[in-house]
Write the structure tokens for this entry.
Amino acid sequence: MKIGVALPQMAPGYGPGTTVDWARRIDAGPFSSVSVGERVTFSNPEMVATLGACAAVTERVRVLANLWVLPQHRMAMVAQQIGTLDQLSNGRLEVAVGVGGREHDYRALGADFTRRHQQLDDKVAELKSLLDGKPPFDGADPVGPACVQPGGPIILAGAMGPKAMRRAAHWADGISGFSIPGDAGEIAKTGDLADRCWSEAGRPTPPRKVSGCFTALGVTDAPTALRSFTSRYLNFLGPKLADLIAATTRASTPEALADILDGAEQAGCDEFILVPAVTDLNFLEVAAEVVTARS
């Protein structure tokens, strides 16, 4: 199982040098990917620009957009952004897409929050057509630049429930899941559902399975930092529910993280993403030791 690291873009203390410092350290470590997520009405930096910086200062790791909320955007621009990122990374780009769950982000971008799953299906089809070189309308030139990867990067689905997973099985190359407590049973259940949906859809290749969890390492009182981060990040659900979910986190010691990674691998995960709750670069030192010890 490969192990990637997200930038700590949602954590307090993210500053001017964080993107480049973290991306370079991730590229130099025993990690498989550097990833960035999308959120609008929050304190994080914008996803596409941040991915571009990551692509420019790394050479080895894959660059993962995790996750692109497609119903919020126009596909011609997304296709151009994907082509640009794939060129900047020389073909190292992967893209996870989904519907998101924050109405405020949709409102901020003037996007329609209704029928999000149907929108996603339609927009993925449009995006794939554009990445394949077809023009956006009759008489237009294709949207450029062309991707280094023929037809564009693989597309993962951030599908959660059975209905969303069955829809995704018709157009995705795999899934990008998440387990806040890093629970092996939860990860296995999601993976088994994906296998069934891909089989029912007649897909000849099994889905690529990515998961992850929030993690705090290398700082004083890491458990408190992890719970605080999780509660703040999930506050859109309401403070009470956010605190209840935050109490389930456990990836705040090397031993706990090693146990989570072992469980994820046994659950059939192809790649596990560590999502940092802190911006201290000591996180990467500790995480690298855990990953190296598993080799």
In short: The chain has a mean pLDDT of 97. The two ends are 10 Å apart (CA to CA).
